[in-house]
Write a structure and sequence with these properties.
The protein is built from 11 helices and 2 strands; from the N terminus they run αααααααββαααα. With about 240 residues, it is mainly α. The protein has one domain (about 1-240): Rhopdopsin 7-helix transmembrane proteins, CATH 1.20.1070. A two-stranded antiparallel ribbon has the order 1-2. It is globular, with a radius of gyration of 19 Å. It starts with 6 loop residues before the first helix and ends with a helix.
């Protein structure tokens, strides 16, 4: 079956599964570290990262479905898998962000994010049930071309994550603790890598070179995210000589 698929589709599917697999593993690993460090932040940022890669879940699922059945998933299922959870993940991240840096503004920030989520989910499901093609066009077996509404939503999430991420990393860099400063540098790298990789993945024509480059950058962002919160001893020894 796999030899009958366009090679770019195969490459896309493999890289999607690889990126999702690595990211979910890293997210779960961060969550598991809570039981050692007893820091709730690790649970929140672990869930956040698992959720941030949700746009690549449907292409992974669709690729596996195509290999097993000869058909990818439907447009409706693709849209649901890749988008429904995203606003809730943003709520989790903003909660962690404000709880650590701006506790006095946490209630206001959470209220804004809840309203944002309600608005998105209402609009999303309205169009999903009435005219799903207004949200995106399916390109079987594993890809979707998103329309203006979904692109606007994706851009808003990327910008919110980038803006808050820069602030979060900047606070770490202001510390006199070398280890905390190094974590801040990794967080800077993670947020910029994720943004760059997502933009490359969505905004430029995909060929084997651009696809490989975008996914490698995205995979690097997952590793940098992990190092930004949990700095392994080996990494510490390399960078803090």
């Amino acid at each position: 079956m796999i030899f009958q698929i366009d090679y770019l589709v195969v490459l896309n599917g493999i890289f999607s599964i690889l990126y999702v697999g690595i990211s979910v593993f890293i997210g779960l690993l961060m969550i598991s570290k809570y039981f050692k460090h007893r820091e709730t932040l690790l649970i929140l940022v672990g869930i956040t990262w698992i959720g941030l890669v949700s746009p690549w879940y449907p292409s992974s699922v669709s690729f596996i479905s195509y290999l097993l059945t000869g058909e990818g998933i439907s447009l409706e299922l693709y849209l649901i898998i890749g988008n429904v959870a995203a606003p809730f993940i943003l709520i989790i991240w903003i909660y962690a962000f404000t709880d650590l840096l701006y506790p006095s503004k946490k209630k206001l920030a959470m209220l804004i994010m809840v309203l944002y989520t309600i608005a998105f989910e209402t609009i999303f499901f309205y169009f999903l049930l009435t005219d799903p093609t207004s949200l995106g066009t399916l390109h079987p077996p594993i890809d979707v071309e998103f329309k203006f509404l979904m692109l606007g939503f994706a851009v808003s999430i990327i910008l919110i994550m980038l803006f808050t991420g820069i602030i979060f990393a900047r606070e770490s860099l202001r510390s006199n603790n070398p280890e905390l400063k190094l974590k801040g540098k990794f967080l800077y790298a993670a947020f910029f890598s994720y943004t760059l990789g997502a933009v490359l993945d969505a905004a430029i024509p995909l060929n084997p070179i651009t696809l490989t480059l975008a996914r490698i950058i995205l995979i690097s962002s997952a590793i940098e995210w992990y190092f930004g919160f949990i700095l392994p001893e080996k990494v510490k020894k390399i960078f803090l000589k």
